[in-house]
Protein 1
Amino acid sequence: MSAITLQHLVKRFGAFTALKSMDLAIADGEFIALLGPSGCGKSTTMNIIAGMETPSEGRILFGERDMAGVPMGRRGVGFVFQNYAIFTHMSVRRNLDYGLRMTGRPAKEIARRTSAMAELLGLTDLLDRPAQGLSVNILQRLAIGRSAVMEPAIFLLDEPLSNVDAAFRAVMRTELKSLQRQFKQTMVYVTHDQLEAMTMADRIAVMDHGVLQQVGTPLEVYNTPANTFVARFIGSPGMNLFTGTLTTTSAGLAVDLGPLGISPPLALAQAAAAQQAKGAVIYGFRPEEVGLAPPSEPAFDLPLSLTERIGARTILHLGTPQAEVRAVFQSGTAIPEGLLRLAPAPAAVRLFDAGTGTALLVA
Amino acid sequence: MTRSVAFEAFRYVAILIALAVTLIPILWMASMAFKPVAEWQATGANLTWIPNDPTLDNFRFLFGESNSNLIVALDRTAGKPILSSLLSATFGTILAMTAGTAAAYGLSRFGSGANLPLALIQLRLFPPMAVMIPVMMMWAFLGLMDTWWGLALVYGIVTLPFAFWLMKTFFDEMPKEIEEAALVEGCSRWRVFIRVTLPMMAAPLAAASLFVFILNWSDYLIALLLTTRNWVTIPVYMASLSSSMTGQLYGAKAALGLIAAVPPVILGIVIQKHLVRGLTFGALKQ
Amino acid sequence: MTLTDTQPLIPIKRAKDEGARLGFRLTLPAQLLVLFIAVFPLLMQLYISLTDWSPLSGASWPQAWQFWNSFANYSEMIADKRLWSALGRTLFIIAICVPIEFLLGLGLATLFVDDFPGKRVAYSILIAPMMVVPAVAGYMFFMLFQSGGPVNDILSWFTLDPVAIAWLSDRHLALVAVMVTDIWQWTPLMFLILLAGLVGVPADQLKAAALLGASPWQRFRTIVIPRMKTIIIIALAIRVIECFKIFDTLFIMTGGGPGVATETISVYIYKVTTNDLIWGYVAAIALAILIVLSIGAVWAMKRLAR
């Protein structure tokens, strides 16, 4: 009943196309994150699911039911706005029980459900306080509680943690996740913060410029990005990507990386994938997958230009800004002075078609 | 919000009705202004919204040309009342804006004259009639009765609250950094006010001045009491046209009404962005 | 020379002094004007209100003491039936016109919240009436309400019979005509102010309410109106105060007549001032009004401050 299906969804605002034919199937009870940079269309998608916008083309189905023409008050969705949209002229209680009152539930039921939700979210002491002037953390809980008390089958959250301070964000992530497990709602979560998406979501839908780039579990999206956008967007820092041409060397199929001066050979699996290439390829590897290469192996031979120490990790920037390799090491690792010889683990190399950017996948 | 078709239809019908109700009186007066004498009193089936025989006679009549269809002639033309309205409204505006802007700046930047906001609002609270007798007495004593400058003085005082409150909210909203930069450079505060602040405030000053001008131009009661013959303003002159004549001079008065009413309406539409602020003494902005 | 701690303060203090001096000079003109129009007239009114003076008496006003009658004017005021009915009539007009203007203005404002084609033009036209010179508006409606005029003409379309109501000669209909004029001229003001208030209601909260199942009417009742409380009070206060002063349109339309059928408080005072010329009495009335209104204003301010 609360599975969501988006079929060929297109949304235009005048001359501007916000969504270009999006297809997505969200399972009942799934926690899916819509992840992408500003302007990618994730909020538009969610507004369409909620009924605040109508699609220019395409359909939305909740379960089997086509939602065209169903007004937003009747869709049974909960919605948490980025700025919470709390009714600041009412008390906390009147905010919490607003939906129940407007839909005419009996007074006893309203009281019972309200106090239960307040209890759950730690708002009981604040029930009769005016909502105006409360801290952001409390407002956020109130926003969630106000929608949750209606027990919607589908819960939509539009970057709810972006205004919350960092310490509290971690707490809220776990709370939201446990709420979702408890009520078994289908949760659609819009964010530009990949850490949130990676830690909370069952699946992530990565979007850019109105196009769905990839849908998959966090691990899938991380390990097997579908294209160079996802490869660069996911991971902090994103994947190192270099354009090169396939050549044959004594060690087998390799990628000539031109200005970088090396032609690393490809492992068997990648070599097989490389057969699908129609020209130049993009050679990619995650900064975490880099290690010091033995002298006999081909490696990136680059001077260290910048070191970023972020507590447990250290990010090294090597080479020039035009041809930069980023490497991530645990902070305790000993790093030799001078030129470093680094190579990625062969199995971690990912290849992409240089023309389209799509991943060349191991068949 | 996406609205239903029924709502959109209702909206259009309601707005059309509102527009019709708004325009009908104005259009009737406009049509009457261009009607010849024969059509002034047409009733029933002869009543027309567009003159059968449009003419500029009414306007000519106001400015001295005698109308062969009217047995009466004006003892004076509309020229002087128009001049009187212009002079008294303009100079009243200048007075109100000068005193008001200065005081608003003084309060906004230096906190001087803290009693003014309340005092000026109280000024608008009282019915003009309740203060006019002493004003008439004073004006008679000072020789200001029946003069455009005497009128301008009253206008300046009566619209001072609007000038003050409008400019005060504008000054309060203006960031102080630019002034402070000039102060650091060594300008005296007075020079800062004249050379820096006022030029930056040109647009709000213009809007406030137009607003005050509209109010002064629209006055009737004060002019009715303070002018008798020489410097009557347009509304007083217009009202007097029938009391000294036999029969209603519909067309001529309608023409005069157009002359009096059209400029402020146009000015008001020009400054419409500032109307809410002006009418609520800065309590609300648009 | 050594720099001491106090030296940096001197330029600042000088600046502050300079500011205070300039501020005083800047506010001086306004203060003088207010003094001129508030204090002197008040004292003069007080003086002659205690006399039986009239400009016809032959003496100039400084010699009004010759006609001293202490508080006789004030007691006469209380018994003055015409005064009280004028006051009642004024309050009646306020009680009818202001609510109607409010409701019509609010209704129109709700239609203007969204964008639609032609909105700017429609808006400009709809605010025009309040900028029409009130005296001219009075004459416009004088013409409209003539027995051979357009109002009767339009009514005839509906009743199919020729309608020839003599609006301005009938005691009750004249009042109706006057109120219609006021509503025509000042509904746009309510529209203007209430629209500004409506637009200030956060759209997100309205959407959130809709998603929680609230109908348009429920959203209006629980979110729009409560958030507009202050603006509504301001709009009503402004309109009530201005309506109390009503003169120009009414006087041009009916002159206060027929008889005293449309005589409001301002018209009454005007008539006594210019026809009967008993200025001592009028001064007493004026002072009484000023005192009552001042007390009312102070009381209202105290309530608002709470």
Note: Chain A has a mean pLDDT of 86.
Protein 2
Amino acid sequence: MKRFRESNNTKNTFFTPQTLRRFLDSNSGLILSLPALIFALLFVFYPLVQMFYLSLFRWTFVSPNMTFLGLENFRRMFLEDQVYLRSLLNVALLAGQSSAIQIPIGIALATIILRYRRIGRLFWAIIFLPYVISSVAVSLVWTWMYNPYFGSVNMFLRTVGLGFLARPWLGDINTALIAIFGTVNWIYIGLTTTMTLATLRSIPPSIFESARIDGLSGFQEFRKITLPLLKELIVVLIIIDVAGAFKFFDLIWVMTQGGPSDSTHVTTTWLYRTAFRASEPGYGAAIGVTVFLFSFVIVQLLVKLVRSKLTR
Amino acid sequence: MRKRIRLFMLGIVLTLISITMIYPVFWTILTSLKTNRELFIDPWGIPEDPSIENYLKALDRGNMGNAAVNSLIVSLSSVALISIIAPMAAYATSRIEFRLRGLITNLLIAGFFIAPHAVLVPLLLLLRDLGLIDTHLGLILSYVGWNLPFAILFMKAFFVSIPYSLQDSARVDGLSNYSIFSKIMFPLALPTILTVAIITFIGVWNDFLFAFVFLRSPSNFTVPINLLNFTTGRYGNDYVAQSAAVIISAIPTIVLYTVFAERIRRGVSFMAFGR
């Protein structure tokens, strides 16, 4: 590599096929990365930087006029916008319930699948299935499951004698969020199980063998080998749940559009509503700034924290 | 004996979970073969005269046929671009020394950790400036930009596992880095590229967000947004036709899943450990 660079530095670099070749050769790393880099700069970083700028103004898509507001959008968001604050709470609830429900069930199912391999394979294939179906299709199907007239949920409750629980699940302000969480868990249980399985399978069997030779009991084995490995996994899964909650949009938009009375909004659906339905893209960009800061920065900090703890 | 009982209980639990996972899909298939009258009279009933009429209606009047073609164009184009661009960048940032390599690597993969939802507003402005709103090209470029980070991360994990000796001996034979990439590394990476391609295809085929914000005319709609449009428009109460549309939308990804289940699950679980 050095040799090429020196020869490039000599002053008489005419544009000959040879110099071109040398140029291409000594910059091959950059040149091969260039198409991806252009995409990253244009479609990820340029919008990201512009978002911070746009969040300081009041403007609309149709007019070129922009009114500078400073940090007014952020003041309004945190001090006046009840729906925004509610959406933050909903994101926290979503991340919290996903972690609390999916992780223990996922670990249990993964352990069962590993133990009973033959039936486990089929079971695994079944529980992962919802993940490959589009979220719009899944949302529609579950909207029908919760439908007050022909929905299976109410029909099932009436059949087993719990008819008093029947209600329009998505239309009732007390149950809409719970109903959505039910669908969320239905989709992602398979994913959590799959990630756990990947971890459990990465443990070389020889570790267990040597543990057995050392005379560790089954429980000690779980505590000394499996659990520490799962600890790392659990933290990673929680991080994924937190980041995922900030990326949540489709399900809520299709099932409730944030209703009833704006009680089921997450931050991204509220961003969409304000930016594109209420024509306040400046305010939407400001919400975007908070989504970015919360999801990206918090997650990066968590990752750093975990890393330093684990590599210690 | 106690072991038997435990196994039996376990079997019951697994069966109940399996039924819960399968039932909504099964119900939708059943409903798609009924008439609306049958649905409201007995939602659990068996269709008396099962017909594919609802499917024809969804494909034709529901615009699902056209949407499927649009989705196919958009998904395949995005996948093709990613399958070429991602291995190039992944190979370069894993195996070639160059200035600012660390910074460039971070720039390339940062998108994996950012929610595209956050930048919807500036992204729409960008597409407007490029004149690409309501076009498939605008959608494709956005998908490529936001799916490359995962693809590159995934490919990098593969390239760092290839022994250096391979590329060193190729260098000794006088091959340039470009030839090493195109003649050795790219073919070697094909199975990994296939995994990335399948996962990206499913992701793009299923994506709602970008299509929802960037597309305007129903003739350009991709499958998910067209599906939603079908349930809110003139056929808003035609639940049996909507059920057929849901099944149509899910067929390609379910077929891919049945064929490539292992690959897909491996790729997806990488998302948890890709760092």
Note: Chain A has 14 helices and two strands.
